[in-house]
Amino acid sequence: MNKYRYLVDFDTDKIETEYHDVIIIGSGIxxxxxxxxxxxxxxxxxxxxxxxxxxxxxxxxxxIAVSLDKxxxxxxxxxxxxxxxxxxxDEKSVWVLVNEAAENIDKLCKYGANFDKNNQEELSLTREGxxxxxxxxxxxxxxxxxxxxxxxxxxKTRSNVKIKERTFAVDLIVENGRCKGVIAFDEDKSTYRIYxxxxxxxxxxxxxxxxHNTTNPEVxxxxxxxxxxxxxxxxxxxxxxxxxxxxxxxPQNKSFLISEAVRGEGAILRNINNxxxxxxxxxxNELAPRDVVSRxxxxxxxxxxxxxxxxDITFKDKEHLENRFPNIYKTCLGYGIDMSRDFIPVAPAxxxxxxxxxxxxxxRTNIEGFYACGEAACNGIHGANRLASNSLLEGLxxxxxxxxxxxxxxxxxxxxxxxxxxxxxxxxxxxxxxxxHIIDDIKSTMTENVGIIRNKDGLLHAKARIDxxxxxxxxxxxxxxxxxxxxxxxxxxxxxxxxxxxxxESRGAHYRTDFDRTDxxxxxxxxxxxxx
Length: 532
Ligand code: SIN
Prior knowledge:
Layout: E1 10-11, E2 17-19, E3 22-25, H1 29-37, E4 44-47, H2 56-59, E5 64-65, H3 74-84, H4 91-99, H5 101-110, E6 136-137, H6 143-155, E7 161-164, E8 167-175, E9 178-186, E10 191-196, E11 199-202, H7 223-230, E12 235-236, E13 241-248, H8 260-264, E14 268-270, H9 290-304, E15 309-312, H10 318-324, H11 326-334, E16 344-353, E17 356-358, E18 370-372, E19 377-378, H12 391-409, E20 423-424, H13 436-449, H14 456-474, H15 481-502, E21 527-528
Parallel strand pairs: 2-10, 3-4, 3-11, 4-7, 11-18, 17-19
Antiparallel strand pairs: 1-20, 5-6, 8-9, 9-10, 12-17, 12-21, 13-16, 14-15, 15-16
The structure holds succinic acid.
């Protein structure tokens, strides 16, 4: 997977080219907020693989963490983030996150986002796992949708922002160490196009689609992380993959999240024998850090020979649940589960990647003109395990940092600064194999061997399997989005497995039975650089 620099062949003198000052890849909270925070003097294009309203952010239920209560403070939010991150958070980045949270929430409210309020008309604050205070603002149980809908409606009014839907960013174009734009596939026209720019911001989200069961949408195939890697950007900490403990477990739906806020409101976990088990695993019980709860559920499922456990909130009355969790209530009811009377069957599923494109607190990568934010990026704020409801916040805080930086950086640059004449010919040939079963096998391999519990034998088995596919498919010419996604999924699987093998310890979301202790002496960051 290192042989070819670009996934597709092209000649910049022959294909359609357009210029924008800034290209943003991805239309979740991080991408759209960044666009709004860049000075309107600059011309921006947002490239999004599907329609603008499809992203992981839109699906976020619980809320956004911010220390607003008089009993709370950025210091306490900092401490909780560091504790959940299992000793691997970058403290400087976490301080930026917690200190700049409130001002960004304020801004979000000015953009029109509506959050639930209490009787005093203050923002209502709930609790989630590993938070020592109530500090999660929310909009029912569809916070991500509320925020994204409002941001998208504002961005659509900005005349300096063009939204390019069904546009798949394939590769970054980098010359002499400087990012000059992107080559992208226009799905409607079935053609490639070059987008030249001064700056590219990658906000493409995570890679949950490497696993069978994930809360992520179908678009989450890690394309941004892969294009960054191929261009020579450093990646970091890819072994840390977070599994959300409570995802609906129903024959027709194994991806619908049952928000941690349900446990924040008191729900308890029971095994299939109806026994509450979390007190045996952690003093914070159901509100222990996510990695702990997911592993405890995994253990209980194994111990009782079951493929799920239950979430019990039947002690709350129906009206309260319908009002507080309207989406979860309705969705469960659609599957015949009335959460005011029935236990909800749940199991862990892939949810979030702590690792990604290595950046500093300004979103800068090691490539000039290339930035990253949101789940695709990794500046160390989440360490080995993300604290609940820090992810939408991350998109806001670091999106704005990029917005500020890019606005000042761009002042003296013009279109004529970006010139490009590049031809890339690899000689790859198109293939006719059905790739659906390969994608299915990648997911099985990752789910079985690179999931909540790992060990060397399983990781080596997964590596051998993925390496075989990499070898076979590297020579295949990509002719559509499915082909391009396959290449990215193979590359990322390989990198996640290699990172997991490399980290010979257990920490946060990375748990190895053959190294079941945290090794505080030997291990720090896991930086991934493309091999020559
Ligand atoms: C949830 O609502 O449980 C998800 C929130 C998050 O991922 O931080």
